[in-house]
Amino acid sequence: MDARFTAEQDEIRRTLRELLHKRCGPQEVRAAVDTPAGHDPALWTALAEQLGLPGLALPESCGGAGCSVTELALACEETGRVLAPTPLLATSVLAAPLILRLGTPAQRAALLPRITAGTLTAALAVPGPALTTALALTGGNDGAWAGGGRAGGVQARRAEGVWRLYGQVDQVLDGHRAGLLVVAAHTGGFARSRTLLFLVTGDAEGVVRTRRTALDATRPQGLVQLRNVRAELLGGDEGDGEGTEVLGALAGTGDAAAAVLACEAVGAADRALELTVEYVKQRRQFGRAVGSFQAVKHRLADVYVEVQAARSAACYAAWAAAGHGGRAGGLALAQALQALRLAAGEAVQLHGGIGFTWEHEAHLYFKRAAGDELLFGPVHRLRAHAARTAGLFERREVAV
């Protein structure tokens, strides 16, 4: 593995950082999350038209840039630094790869070029607080997490050649405004119980969507209710099998998404550390800068080591997810979330009284750390599943 960034990767990072520095400062972030959409449509258009960010990891045949997950992850490190509230995670990291992998040629041709152009946003709707389960990050995804029987969730029935969905999805990232919903639904009854993915347009008859109040306002979530909604099976009716292909696609998407999220968390942690270092150099107490005290230096040194370790793990996971073998996304995400939690916590404390105020941006990073762990963790479960998958805790008989 060559750990050096390519010239193209460096250019992506530099260009994106410059654009976000100009258009996504703390005040712009606060203003964007207070809008009904939860993000700045003008910024999203700029990211799509100037940088092609929504289609960065999509093939050129679909209008994308033809890059890999590695480039997308590195780009998300920059969006994570400023906590940019964009539909990038929901659209390009979660929904688009599933359409690319499972969709029919007609579905890919109809949807992916629009996603690449930034004119169509998408969201993955997974019933209940089961996103990490569906993506196989904290356990196997072969259970009844999508519903079934009296388990709630979303049910799918086919009558007269038409699929109909009914049910409710409580927490959908960008689900309140996405133009396309990729809905995981349970079908087949008890005998042929399986989970399939369906395409539903956001304005379809019977779809009721409400924005929810979230701990992390930079990751807006929506409540999606499906009331006998007509849907299209992702992959076409010929893909209506036992659902094993769907579960595999979700697991593969989950590993790549975890690598991207890890890089994003590293970017946020790094920025929180930068803000804290800048502040303790300026803040004076007892006639000297706060940062000159040994105890403060030790605390920040611990954060720095944690962030650098997380960056190394995230970069390796992104490299592996780009087709180099192995799945390290979950473990890298655990490392990155832990680093972000530490960096954000120290940022709040070492900023002193101002760190607890609404006006300062430290609390935004703290909420991102807590919110991401609730959505994609917790850390100990990510690590436990990675250990089980690697067989670290298997009993082995030793011949005497």
From TrEMBL:
Protein name, as recorded: Acyl-CoA dehydrogenase family protein
EC number of the protein: 1.-.-.-
Organism: Streptomyces anandii
The Acyl-CoA dehydrogenase/oxidase C-terminal domain, residue ranges: 259-388
GO molecular function, one term: oxidoreductase activity
Superkingdom assignment: Bacteria
Protein family per UniProt: Belongs to the acyl-CoA dehydrogenase family.
Keywords for the protein's UniProt record, in alphabetical order: FAD, Flavoprotein, Oxidoreductase
Record Pfam families: Acyl-CoA_dh_1 (PF00441), Acyl-CoA_dh_N (PF02771)
Domain Acyl-CoA dehydrogenase/oxidase N-terminal intervals: 6-118
Cofactor(s) listed: FAD
Methyltransferase in keyword set: no
Entry annotated with the keyword RNA-binding: no
